[in-house]
Write a structure and sequence with these properties.
By secondary structure, the chain is α/β, with parallel strands linked by helices. The chain has 13 helices and 14 strands. The structure holds NADP nicotinamide-adenine-dinucleotide phosphate (NAP). The site of NADP nicotinamide-adenine-dinucleotide phosphate has 28 residues, from α1 and α13.
């Protein structure tokens, strides 16, 4: 099979580093180009990233000496050298929107981790196991941008990647009505480690800017449908969220309360989770977990440290399902925020786009 030439925009950041590790032995993708801010441009990667490298493994040899490009000034050159880019940059939203559109207009597809385009109506926001059909909006987006190949596809926020996968498959049979969720989010979600954010040791911060709005609003686009040239958000289920930052390196936990149109039994819910297969499992995509939703019977599972890396950090863990006094049920869920919730989710989305012919 042909290998795709891939660029990483924001390669020196936390998510960029994850991309580099995940793609170092990828069967379909070859990382041939790295780009970051003008601060890093022109330097070999190992020097540009320097002490910011915070992955558990050393910098892979294939990228160590690549000279970093300027993500904003070198768009034309970058677009010539790659088949598509992954993008994860820390810039202002309007700058990111313009940057990603510029790559797309240069006929370079963008698979993005950034939130800037999540609510652009013709940009698909895809969690590949749940709403893969939303990529069918891409021809409409290409028409608007005036491109043949170029487009933008995004993945949703990391905070929702436990509770939305758990609830979405239940909706068809039982109608999810109201959802209350509290998230307990790792510090890597802010691009930080305990070295760079020592204030988080022995601490909880009850505020993450913009996170509650994303956690309540983004699920409605995932639940949405294509109508003409746009994706129309659903007006249900009702979501309310509180998002807390907790002293954990990786892994977002969620405590979920849910009410249904037609209350299922506990056994029916467990069966839906056990049997659920999305498009990535059917297509056997390289980064797809074999078992997407995993239920733990033990009272003290899933645990962040024990279970976040399940199936390479791409599987979702669920536990403690029981009836509630105010809602129908409550349960907990766990997802790896920089794998499933960031770089891994974007890689899986890119695999889906390749398998469905959008990168050719
Ligand atoms: P980060 O560690 O702060 O990295 C930011 C990256 O952006 C670096 O490569 C940086 O390059 C680059 N950059 C900054 N200013 C730039 C400019 N003016 N032009 C070009 N590149 C510039 O951030 P992160 O945690 O990786 O997050 C990146 C994006 O992913 C954000 O939009 C974030 O919201 C999103 N995201 C993060 C997570 C997560 O778990 N961390 C999850 C989902 C989504 P230099 O090193 O050269 O400054």
């Amino acid at each position: 099979m042909k290998k795709y030439r891939v660029g990483i925009i924001g390669a020196t950041g936390m998510v960029g580093q994850r991309f580099i590790l995940l793609l170092s032995e990828h069967p379909w993708f070859d990382v041939v180009l790295l780009a970051a801010s003008p601060r890093s441009a022109g330097k070999p990667y190992y020097e540009a990233v320097g002490s910011k490298w915070c992955m558990e493994k050393p910098i892979p040899e294939n990228v160590k000496n690549l000279v970093v490009y300027n993500a904003t000034d070198d768009i034309e050159e970058i677009s010539k050298q790659v088949d598509f880019v992954f993008c994860a940059v820390d810039m202002k939203k309007d700058e990111i929107r313009a940057l990603e559109e510029e790559y797309a207009r240069h006929e370079c597809p963008v698979v993005s981790n950034n939130s800037a385009h999540r609510h652009t109506p013709d940009v698909p926001m895809v969690l590949p196991e749940l709403n893969p059909e939303h990529i069918e909006i891409i021809p409409s987006q290409r028409k608007r941008l005036g491109t043949k190949r170029g487009f933008i596809a995004v993945k949703p926020n990391c905070s929702l990647q436990g509770y939305v996968p758990a609830l979405f498959p239940l909706d068809e049979k039982f109608g999810v009505k109201d959802v209350l969720v509290c998230t307990y989010q790792a510090i890597s979600g802010a691009g930080k480690t305990f070295d760079t954010w020592p204030e988080m040791i022995d601490n909880v911060i009850p505020f993450i800017g913009g996170e509650e709005e994303k956690s309540e609003k983004e699920p409605l686009k995932i639940w949405g449908h294509i109508e003409g040239d746009v994706i129309v958000d659903s007006n249900r289920p009702n979501f309310t969220a509180q998002c807390l930052r907790v002293p954990v390196s990786n892994g977002h936990m969620g405590a979920v309360f849910a009410r249904f149109e037609k209350k299922p039994t506990k056994e029916e819910m467990l069966e839906v989770w056990k049997d659920y297969k999305g498009r990535p499992q059917i297509l056997n995509l390289p980064s797809a977990p074999k078992q997407f939703l995993n239920y733990f019977e033990e009272d003290n599972r899933p645990q962040t440290k024990l279970d976040r890396d399940l199936e390479g950090g791409m599987a979702i863990s669920i536990g403690r399902l029981r009836e509630d006094t105010q809602f129908d049920y409550k349960f907990v869920c766990l997802s790896h925020n920089t794998l499933r919730g960031a770089a891994g989710g974007a890689v899986l989305l890119a695999e889906l786009l390749c398998a469905e012919g959008y990168m050719d």
